[in-house]
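Reading group handout, session on sequence-to-structure problems. Before we discuss, look at one worked example. The prompt was deliberately terse, the way you'd type it at a terminal:

> structure Golgi Transport

The input record follows.
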Amino acid sequence: MWLSDTQKIGVGLSAFGFAMISLGVVLFFDAGLIAIGNILFLAGMSMIIGVQKTMFFFTRRDKLRGSFAFFAGFLLVLIKWSILGILIEAFGFLNLFGDFFPVVVNFLRHMPVIGRFLSLPGVSQVVDRLAGYQTQLPV
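And the output record:
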């Protein structure tokens, strides 16, 4: 994967943002950590794909509901309603990035240890349903 230096920094900021959000959730929905994680995630995303493309992504007509929910959740976290804010953010995140889940699942299935785990009979069916894969039944 060939990334420019700016994109590498963006990947690091996004990963650190996810880590801060996860740590904030684990530490009883600490609003400060979740807010810092949100800011780092948005900064990282704008460094990965560029500011103009980030604005275009969030303002596309089919992504407006997800964008509104994500930023409404972000504002709720900022005013210290972190549990409700993170739930609304999660809804917005799923609406914004739900199209990428099949790509991510396909990538994870080709990894050595995780791929074997995702190929287990029960796990495979759950992951396929979450990723939106259609199963063909023999007729």
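Points for discussion. First: Helices lie at 5-26, 31-49, 51-59, 64-78, 82-97, 101-109, 112-118, 121-131. Second: Residues 5-26 form the longest helix (22 residues).
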